[in-house]
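Minutes, project check-in

Agenda point 3 was the complex the collaborators sent over. CS summarized: two entities, 924 residues total, and the question is how they sit relative to each other. Sequences were read into the notes so everyone works from the same version.
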Amino acid sequence: MDNIKNYVGQNKDRFINELIELLKIPSVSADSAYSQDVINTADAVKASLEKAGCDHVEICETPGYPIVYGEKIIDKNLPTILVYGHYDVQPADPVELWTSPPFEPVIKKTDLHPEGAIFARGACDDKGQMYMHVKALEYMVQSNSLPCNVKFMIEGEEEVGSPSLAWFVERNQDKLANDVILISDTGMISNTQPSITTGLRGLSYVEVEVTGPNRDLHSGLYGGAVANPINVLAKMIAQLHDENNHITIPGFYDKVEELTRDERDEMAKAPFSLDAYKQALDIQDVYGEATYTTNERNSIRPTLDVNGIWGGYTGEGAKTVIASKAYAKISMRLVPAQDWNEITELFTRHFTSLAPKGVRVKVTPHHGGQAYVTPIDSVGYKAAALAYEESFGIKPIPVRSGGSIPIVALFEKELKSKTIMMGFGLDSDAIHSPNEHFGIFNYLKGIETIPLFYKHFTELSK
Amino acid sequence: MDNIKNYVGQNKDRFINELIELLKIPSVSADSAYSQDVINTADAVKASLEKAGCDHVEICETPGYPIVYGEKIIDKNLPTILVYGHYDVQPADPVELWTSPPFEPVIKKTDLHPEGAIFARGACDDKGQMYMHVKALEYMVQSNSLPCNVKFMIEGEEEVGSPSLAWFVERNQDKLANDVILISDTGMISNTQPSITTGLRGLSYVEVEVTGPNRDLHSGLYGGAVANPINVLAKMIAQLHDENNHITIPGFYDKVEELTRDERDEMAKAPFSLDAYKQALDIQDVYGEATYTTNERNSIRPTLDVNGIWGGYTGEGAKTVIASKAYAKISMRLVPAQDWNEITELFTRHFTSLAPKGVRVKVTPHHGGQAYVTPIDSVGYKAAALAYEESFGIKPIPVRSGGSIPIVALFEKELKSKTIMMGFGLDSDAIHSPNEHFGIFNYLKGIETIPLFYKHFTELSK
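CS then shared the predicted structure for the full assembly.
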């Protein structure tokens, strides 16, 4: 423990500067305008893995963006850890809300990050958390303390639903063979209370298009006489929740497992202040499904949110027009046992049925993934718990996250191994939002904690 | 009648080319990016009035865009006609739906315009219909047949609610003194069935902003736990109509006059084919307030339409975000006796009351205007009816339009004179829409008909 602390202390500035260089590349996978940047980022990750001490690193082509694979095999008889991460990032917009340019990283102090945090798109999700693993490997190689084999699989399409990853995993089962999968793409409760994510929600993401008249119309001459696609879309969206904020899609909840009172009481023990939560978001009150707490609403319950909506005249001033088309992007977060393909079908059938005769509706599935729950009695979980405890001096709490990493369920299916999610970011780090940041403390603490996982996992696997 | 027909025949090409030059200037008053073009258009209108034979023309500055005033006073004892029109146009977007650039006029034949129509933003609304009056004056001056005095007041802010016109009219009552106001900014039933617009709807146009959390949030970590401004906005918009498509704003209908069965039967006599209407718009069915016909819904009934909506991620691909803000532009068409200021207040109070505690709502009034109905026994109406009958060979039908010309009510109040709306465009001319056009037949027929109004109005005024 002291050795790694010292090593991190001596190389702190370099570790930060290397990450900053990586963050300068705008690897936005959702927007084809950045495709060259995404590819350049893959090359940068490859170089960093070689520098860190991998024996073999390659850029693996896929139908989409490439996957960076690296490995260091020291002994076939020792366990193998597969590290997964992603080098692509979310779009930065709304850019005008960033206090500093999203791809010009700067270090600023915040209340939660008194030692400073790196502000940049991807700082926490996931370049920063992915790069912790690269630096942890560097340390273990330099200090000759790597206790087992390690493989890296760093993809560039996570923020658009990992369309090529399944394709890659199915074709490379031997190459990816492992005893445990390690991911840092989640968060922890606080810098003084680490936690391990034991559950992820699934996802179904669709785009809907409502078409009324075949052209934009003058709202005076046609107003009130034809179905207005925007009004209709609003009405259809409104009907997706009832007065208790239950989702109204028939069959939506059929496979949702109700947690026992005990399980819910256990969850409720995690430290949480509703006042602090409301204050941090500057909202008068929370809002969600009746009879569930905030922490239940965003973890063990499925949800439906409109992520974007547009139609008609959105420019300066006023235009008295009835639009021909209105659009929305809608995503549903799913819980274990809900199948995202089935949910997508249920949504499509229900949403289409809500349309009045005066309009036509098109639903286009974007992507999705299954939910996941990992047992807390596995070797991997125990090793992670010991690592956090040794590094933070306090036992980590298992938590179910509301987020989705669609490929985790796929890994278990294809690679037959458990995934351990060791997150070091905070919910307040504004991932997917303007001013995303990652604490210097969290970044360095992650680099310190990861080698401890390697140690404990190897020992517990004996 | 023959003289004017001959004159139009001889000068047809020049009349068309002059209008095309005017249409090339993108005088979009809603978008400040075009402010210089708007001003240049005022200068072009001034020049055209001088060329047509006005004795005195001036550019009158206002707090907003200038008003072009012109006059030809031949005898203080003769009646005076005040011609009102506007030289500004609606925004052209969505530009990608235009089959030819909106400000590069081209002549194309259509089923309804076998002699061809000029396609350009403003072709019909209102540059084309305004310019008919300039050319009609030219004829009367050239042929020495102007029977009365004429004044022109051509503004540049009609498409944004004429914010400066009231200011101008109140300060220039003597200058604008007249016996009748003549406007061509409406339509007629068809090229074989002329009609005179006897009613206009009022307007209240507002913009709403719904704010939830103080920043965009990750929809996985917060989805289901906080009010999503887009879902909330959709729910609020949906609640503005009930299941019969009645507007739910308390007090909204209090001052709406119900027409008698006889009046409604009279209206129903206007030629109208619901099938042709649906086919022209490519819609399976119409949609609107229960117990009213299509022609009633868009003329004698008040309506509420969302003209634009936006919020969250609207770019390419998928972004799992909960937006901090969502916006909509909403307009209400009003009928006589509904006061637009009062309705704006009723809307604001009601809409704000629909918001759950988790969001903040801001309603910003854009502009508005009162509805108007003109009696059909006035000298002006009779003169217009005779002019159409002489020119088209068939009696015109009085119709109530669904559109709004907010300043017509103002004219009656300030200038104490009736307004006659002689429209020559067709509803299918796509005003406010991509591919706006104005039939060559309609343009020339208007130029031929207007001098007949001057003749009959002067005679009937004796």
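Noted in discussion: The two ends of chain B are 21 Å apart (CA to CA).
Follow-up: revisit at the next meeting once the mutant set is ready.
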